[in-house]
Each structure stands twice: as structure tokens, then as C-alpha cells.
Amino acid sequence: MTSTAASKQTPSGAGTGESLFGAVDLTGLDGQFTPAEKELTLAVRSLVDEHIRPNIAQWYEQAVFPREIIPELARLGLLGMHLEGYGCAGKSSVEYGLAASELEAGDSGLRTFVSVQGSLAMSAIHKHGSEEQKQRWLPAMASGEAIGCFGLTEPTAGSDPAGMRTTAAQEPGGDWVLNGAKRWIGLATIADVAIIWAQTGEPGDARGVRGFVVPTDTPGFQAEAIPSKLSMRASVQCDISLEDVRLPADAILPADSALGLKGPFACLNEARYGIIWGVMGAARDSFDAVLDYSGERLQFGTPLAGYQLTQAKLADMALEINKGYLLALQLGRAKDAGTLDPVAISVGKLNNCREAIAIAREAREMLGGNGITLDHSPLRHANNLESVRTYEGTDEVHALIIGRTLTGIGAFTAAGK
Ligand code: TGC
After folding, report:
1. Mean pLDDT across the chain
2. Global pTM?
3. 260 lines ligand 1 (CB under 6 A)
4. What is the number of alpha carbons within 13 Å of residue 269 lying toward its C-beta?
5. What residue's CA is closest to ligand 1, atom 20?
């Protein structure tokens, strides 16, 4: 990385003392959080400032996922941080959201690591696993010694996981044999364990879908990183192939909560919730970058910040960041109270992804030509957010979940299902 690239990755809230949100906080966001929530947020921010910001441009350019960051994340208790017991930190949903926001202010790829490990792989075992599965995997995953991935999406089944072709057949002796393929699976090439969702019944039978805990050294399991990504370059997404992967009978996630697609959807709720907060971190970092720049950069002898068009853009960005955090907080408090409805998660994911990518793109424009380099964060964030708005339910899927709630009519297929 060039020294310029390192120097321009401005720490969030720099120069604002202990403020959580810095200049963008026009609505008293800071006052909404408890001392413990603030402390955790600032600790994650320090980690990002120390370990991520100085290196992210290089990791992104070279398409490297920095494994060396894992012990630092574990040290702060960020892996499965909202889970209770088994070595997990047992933090609140709001704390989990604030941590996601700080990590994604660094880079969406790093927040994705924490989401895949904690919200998807660990959550699946925590919610649906046997006591033996929990004891075997969760403490090692919380400490970062074991990495997990979550195999739901397939080459031909993304928005419609009921259409998955991966099968799990039980043999008379009790063993399960898995065959199929998964795609876009975060961390699969570095994972020690994969949660694989497979069809145990007739094709298309949503209730036949079951989850399996698959050690990745099981013969027949193979993962390969997907190359040439223009987004999430400091992260790893993979193809998985499963060829006669033989597992013992007790590899299945046994809980009733995992019978059918509600099993993986319960985990997706956790990951989607983290995204609602995370993307606001990327938006805030983009805003901070362009606020600094517009104060320094002269055009026609005047700082950009002195032009009405610049101020109008900054104002619009600040409105959406304030609204996005207020929405995230409303949902986080509801989640902690046990009253969060999945449709509200769709509201948050759709809105905050949409606004975050618009803010990152606007910030890039305001940086002019300099905005297309890795010296500045907004275009990197915008490119990453293309993935974030797509995974864990696309904009369209969340719009249709909201539409179904509003109208009572499912419109996912032409047949009105
Ligand atoms: P439907 O078939 O009717 O429902 C199946 C069962 O699931 C229940 N359910 C939920 N439960 C908890 N939370 C939710 N959010 C739930 N949504 C549905 C539902 O009640 C039913 O239960 P039961 O008891 O009757 O069996 O499905 P649907 O019509 O509700 O859903 C349709 C649709 C399109 C909304 C759904 O299929 C959907 O959300 N699609 C998007 C899937 C998605 O987000 N895929 C991305 C996965 S990300 C990935 O695989 C890679 S991991 C990330 C990484 O590695 O980086």
C-alpha cells in the first residue's frame, strides 16, 4: 500500500473525543447508548483504527482476507458475541449491532467474517444443535480456533432456497450421504466446519430441508474461492462441492426449530439484523471521508464545503445516516426485548442497504477523480455494498416480504406464492 493510502483512511469520529458518531450526529444519537454500549463501541473502533484502517487498501487491492485479524476479533469477544454460554460473550443485540457498525466502517468484508462466523455458523449450532455439537464447536469458534461457514445458497437457488438441489440421504445403518453444490459461501476455504443445508425429502419440499454439521476435512467436501470479484475483495466467498460426503447419524442438527426452512431463516434473521447496523458504519465512514475532504479541497479558490451544492449533499447524507441509525436502534431494542418481527428486519435491511450505497456513491462523486482510488474509502464501500444488498436477501426479496405483510398476498412467483 502507498503511504498516501494509509494516511487517508481517516479514523471515524477523529477529533471528536469520545463521541460515537462524530459530526454526523445531528439528532443526539450519542445520548441513546449506555456506558457499556459506548465502551464496547470504542473498543471495536480502536481495533479497526489499529488493525484494519492501516492495511485495508492493500488487502482490498491484493484480494487478501487477513487471517491474522481473527485473534484480535476473538480477544474482544466479537465471535458469536450475542450468544450465551459456550465461551461466547453474551452481549446484547444493540452491542452486537454497534460492533458490526464499527467493523463495517473499516470494511464490509471484515464485518462479513464476524457475521458468517457468529450469526450464521455459530447461531445455527447454538439454536438448533445437540449438546455434543455445541460443546464440540462453539467454544473453539468463539475463540477463533475454529472457523465456520454456512452453506445455504446454491448455483441455481439463491433467493429461493426451497429450490435447492443438494440432497441428504440416510442409509439403513444411519449414516447420511450428502451430494450437491453450494455457491457464494463466505469463508468456506478457511473453514473447519460447514453448516450444510440439504433436502432430505422430495425436490422443492421446504419442510424436508435439514441442516448438517460437516467437518470440512470429511472426504468429498471441497471448497474453492470464487476469483475476480469486484466487491468484498478483502473477504473470501466460495463454491463448495459435496460428493458422497458421508456423515454419522448425529451430524444432523436435531432440534425441532431446524425442521424445514425456518431453521436457516432463523439464522438469516441474525445476519440480516447485523447488516442493518453494519452498512450504516460504511455510510458513516464515507460521510466522514468526504466531510474532511470538502473542508480541505479548494476549487475556484474556495473549499468545496463552502458551496451550496456540497452542503446540500452533505445534509442529505447526514439525514439518512441519522435515520438509519435510529431505525437500527429501534430494531435492536426490540430484539433485546424479544419483540422483533422478521418483517421489521426486512424494513431495516432494505432501507439501510439502499441508503448506505447511495451515500457511498455520492461521497465518491464528491471526491472527484481522487474518489476512484483506494486512497479514499467511499468507492470501496460502495463496491462492497453491492454484495451486502444482494446477500441475506436481495432488495427485491425484502421488498416482497414487506409487500406480503402489507397486502396479505405473496408475490414471490407469478403464481402468487
Ligand atoms: P416459506 O417456504 O413459506 O417458509 C418456510 C418456513 O420458514 C419460516 N420463515 C421464517 N422463519 C424465521 N424467520 C424468517 N425470516 C422466516 N421466513 C420464513 C416460515 O414461517 C415457514 O415456516 P414453517 O414452520 O411453515 O415451515 O418461505 P417464505 O415464503 O416465507 O419465504 C420466501 C422468501 C423469498 C422470503 C425466502 O425464501 C427468502 O427469504 N429468500 C431469501 C433467501 C436468502 O436470504 N438467501 C441468502 C442466503 S445467504 C447464503 O447462503 C450465503 S451465507 C452468507 C455468506 O456466507 O457470506
Report:
1. 95
2. 0.95
3. yes
4. 20
5. 262
